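ok posting inputs for the fe (ii) ion job
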Amino acid sequence: MGVYWRKGLEIGVIEIDKQHQSLVEAFNSFLLACRNGKGSSELLELLKFLDSYAIQHFTTEETIQKASSYPEYESHRLQHLGFMKKIHDLKGQLTSNDPPQINHLIAANTVLLDWFIKHISGSDSHFGRYLFETNYFAESDAQ
Ligand SMILES: [Fe+2]
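and the output
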């Protein structure tokens, strides 16, 4: 079991693709820790990483969306907020409980990872196509 970066996940924006790759790698090391029975001790680390890195990453996307007048900016931003809420909810459950339980590990894998992969291959790749079709980078010279 694992999640690997693959060409099909690229949206064609170098900075965003690199950030997505880093996020996939963070999930991957967490999955590896789960497989080695160390998921519980790694979960909080993953959530801490996601908490800060996801904000940075979402800001990158939203900045380009605004600059390119992406028509779906607002709904895309709401999806990002939904993801942050999932992280905070999971973190909240952990700090009020003893060591993370198996249900927390499953939640991290299914709720967070599934959301993330679907978001990249759906909404983010839609955004990538928009940038390509509107020739954004050729005109702005931003990449
Ligand atoms: Fe996004």
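notes: The chain has one domain: 13-140. The first helix runs from residue 14 to 35.
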